[in-house]
Amino acid sequence: MNLQLQQIADALKGSLTGLGDITVQGYSIDTRTLNAGDLFFAVKGPRFDGHEFLQQAMEKKAAGVVIERGEIQPAAGFGVVRVPSTVAALQGLAREVRRLWGGPIVGVTGSAGKTTTKEMIAGVLAKKYTVLRSIGNLNNEFGLPLCLLRVDRAQTIAVLEMGMSAKGEILNLARIAEPNEGVITNVNPVHLEFFDSIEGIAAAKAELLQGLVEPRVAYLNYDDARVRAMAGNFTGKVVSYGIESEALFKGQAVRDLGLDGTAFAVHTAEHDHDFVLRLLGQHNVTNALAAIAVGISHGIPWNDVRDAIGAMRPEKKRGEVVRFDKGFAVIDDSYNSNPKALTEMIRFLGRLQGYTRKIVVAGEMLELGPASAELHRSCGREAADAGVALIVGVQGEARSVLKGAREAGFKDDQLLFAEDSVDAGRKVAGFVRPGDVVLVKGSRGVKLENVLSALHSSFSSREA
Question: S-S: 300 plus which of 16, 295, 342, 450, CB 3.0-4.6 Å?
Fold first, then answer.
C-alpha cells in the first residue's frame, strides 16, 4: 500500500506541512531500522519517545514524519503530518489500509503457542493463498499495525498474532485489524501479575471473538475447558479441535519420534489422516490441529495440508534441537516459558528414550503474580516425577523449582541454582557429558540463550 502523504494526512485528519505527493514506501517507529522513503511515526512508549529522533529520520531520508508535538522544518522531499496522537494515528492508518485491502484476516491469540500456531496456519494457507503474516511475535499495539501496513494488494489472506498483558488490549487490536476469523490456543496462568485470576485472562483472550467481523469463525481448542466455554457465548461459527476432547478435528494416536518430532492422526467425520510433525511435544500437535482446521476450512486439500505440516521446523529458540559433537543434545526452548509449557516439555523429556541423563535448565517464569512460588514448585515436582537426573534453576523464583523437586524426593546433588543465565551457562558447560539431553527453557527476561552461547563456545555443534 504505497500511499501518498496527502492521502495519509487526509485519512488521519491531520495537517500536512511539505509536499503531499510524496509516495511512502514503508512505515517505521524506529529510526534504527528506518529505510529511505519510509514514514516515521514518532510514537511514545514506556522507554522511548520518537520525537527525540526526528532529525535522524530526516537524515536517513524518510519520506516524512508523523508527530503530535514540537517543531521540525521539513527539507525538500520531506513532509510532516501533525496529529493529536501518533499512536492513534499509527493504529488508525493501519485500520484504513486494512479496509482498502479488504482481504480475510485470521487472528491468533492464547497464553502459549501463538507464534508457532500462527506460523503453522500461514504455512498451510500458503498452499492456496499469498499470505501476509505477523513478523516474529510483533503482536502488540505497535507491532500489529506495522504488520498491517506491510500488506500488499497481491496478498490474499493475512494471519496476525495478537498478544496482551491487560484487559481490553486484544479487543483494541481486533478493532484495528477487524479479523474475520479467530484462533484461541489456550488459557494458562501467565500475566497473573496483571490479572486477579485465570478467569480474567480467559475473558481477555475471548475479546478476540467479540472483535470478529463477518463471517465470524472461531477455531477453539476444546481440550482447554476455558477456551471451550467461549463457544457458549459466541454467535458465529465454531470449529473445534483437540486431542483429549470430542472435536471436529480430533488428534489421536499421538506417538513421539524422539527428537525427530511427533506422529499423529487427525480424525474427522469423513476420514482419518496421518501426519508427521517435526516439532516436539503433544502441545505442538494441538497447535498443528489448529492450523489443519483453518486450512481445511479454507478448502486446502488434505495432501497439501499434510505437506505443509510436515515441512514445519521449529522457530529459533522455540524447541530447536542442537546436537553437539561431544555426544549430547540440547532442546533450545529458551525464547519463553510458562508453567503449562514447561510442564509439557518436561513430560516430553520424561518419555524421551536413548539418553543416559536428562537435564532440565529451568529459568524463572515471570509475571505469575502471587501464585508464582507454588507454580514454580509444581514444575519442580513434575521434573522429579519425569525421572530427570538433574535440575538447574536459573534466577530468582527458580529456586522454588528446586524446592518442589526436593519435596518430591530429589537429593541436593541433583539440584543446582544459578544466579543468572551466564552463571548457568558456565555450570552446564562444566558438567555436560556424552549421552546427555538438556532442556533449556525460561522466560524471555532470563535470557537463557546465554546457556546455548556458553555451550557453543565450548563445543562444536550442528542443528538436528
Answer: 295
Q: Structurally, how many domains does the chain consist of?
A: 3
Say which residues have a Cβ less than 8 Å from residue 282's Cβ, sequence separation at least 6.
243, 254, 262, 344, 347, 348
191: its cell numbers = 500475566
- Read off φ and ψ for residue 114, nearest 5 degrees: -60, -50
Which residues are CB-neighbours of 159 under 8 A, at least 6 positions away? 105, 106, 108, 118, 121, 122, 125, 131, 132, 133, 134
The reply to whether 327 and 307 lie within a common domain is no
Calculate the average pLDDT of the chain. 94
303 and 292 Cβ atoms separated by less than 8 Å: no
pTM confidence score: 0.90
CATH number, domain at 374?
A: 3.90.190.20
Q: Residues 289, 351: one domain?
A: no
Range(s) of the domain holding residue 383: 320-463
Alpha-carbon Rg for the chain in angstroms:
24
- 137 pLDDT exceeds 80? no
In a shared domain, residues 281 and 348: no
Element (H, E) at 42: none
